[in-house]
Amino acid sequence: MMGRKKIQYTVGSDRGSVLLILAAAMVFLLGVCALAIDMANLYLARAQAQRAADAAALAGAKAFLNTGCATSGCTAGGIQETVGRQQAEAIGAQNLIAGTAAVIKNSDVTFSYPNAWEPQITVVAQAAVSTFFAKIFGIDSSNVSATATAEAYNPAGGGGVQIGTACLRPFLVPNCDPDPAHASPSNPTCNNPGQGPGTFGYFFDSSGNLAHPGTYPAGIIGMPWQLHTESGPSQWYLVGFDNAPPSSGSALRNHIVACTSAIYSCGTTLTTTNGKNVGPVSQGIEALINANGDGFGEGQDSIDTSVGPPFAITGGSNNSNAELRGKVFYDYSQSASVVSVPVYDGSDLPPGGTGVQIVGYLQVFVQDVVHRGNDNHIDVVILNGSLCGGGAPGSGGGGGGTIVAAGGSPIPIRLIRTN
């Protein structure tokens, strides 16, 4: 009897031990769930934070273009920092981290300048992410953050990596600045009709520098220019892309509207077209800028250069983004009127077509196209200029590879470091 009672007591004691083990196991399992589910959620949130930081940094780096300092040289404390911080915070807030808008404070946006033409912006995006099972242990939320750095790269001084662009328009600009205030240093390659060579200045000088940085009239940012002018017998500063016949009007029109899919780098040889191609040029420009016809006020975007840079762009009634119609904005990438064109050395173009080398790029705002008799002129405003890099303009040098600028920009905007 005594033995039996002892056995029963032992069994009853085991049952209590099992309950204790199960209870402890439940706590352990909940801990594992908290670790697995909450950590997976935080890992996803961390990836979303990185995307928010990347987008914010790239948006903020556009300020280096829009303010023109990537062309004229950026200095600490300039207007580009105010504009860049605003753009980074606005774009960052449009990105969600675990269902919550990313938080980017003023102190989360910083700027650095390895040199005046390589400005950088660093952005930290963060958010408090709610937990699930970890709440049982008193952990209601966890902070996640990510850092990204972006830069504008303009190889001023002729050194560094070559620049290429993925969206050029088929208009040539001679490296000849005709403004009398910009005549020094003079470009001996440029032949000023009636005055001879050496009476025009440079956009990019023989050392690979921008000859006249800054805002017009002292510099070229905001300077009026005219595309499709007569450069010689049967020559109108036009080029053919993608092996299209130089005389093909339809190919020319298409490349004005949609640019070229090919990447053209500094030192690349382009073939000039022969003839005015007035119809395809005017049709292409009007389609490009969403204009109903000749001149200003035909539904295209307009630009105000009286204040800035950045210059205020007003969306035209035909702007493809309905939200921008009648609105003022400063992001050049939002206007179809902002394009990039190649610059060549400025030598005379012989009739019949010839080859010219790219020595740099200009970003311009196309205001309108105006018919004049059997000719037409395209009025533009210069927004930015990019040097070739890898040596002086025309050298075709650069052993460090090629950086490609996308989206019609002559100056690449790129992520250079993510954390």
Task: List its traits.
alpha+beta; single chain; 419 residues; 22 strands; 5-stranded mixed β-sheet; 5 helices; 4-stranded antiparallel β-sheet
Question: Brief description of this entry?
Answer:
The protein has helices spanning 2-66, 69-72, 79-93, 249-258, 278-289; strands spanning 96-97, 100-101, 109-112, 120-130, 141-152, 162-165, 173-174, 191-192, 196-197, 224-227, 239-240, 264-265, 269-272, 302-304, 312-314, 328-329, 338-344, 355-357, 360-372, 375-387, 402-405, 413-418.
Describe the structure.
The chain is built from five helices and 22 strands. The chain is an alpha+beta fold and 419 residues long. The chain folds into two domains: 2-152, no CATH class; 157-413, no CATH class. The strands form seven sheets. Strands 7-17-19-20-10 form a five-stranded mixed beta sheet. Strand 8 (191-192) and strand 9 form a beta hairpin. The longest helix is centred in the N-terminal third of the chain and has 65 residues, at 2-66. The protein is elongated, with a radius of gyration of 30 Å. The termini are far apart.
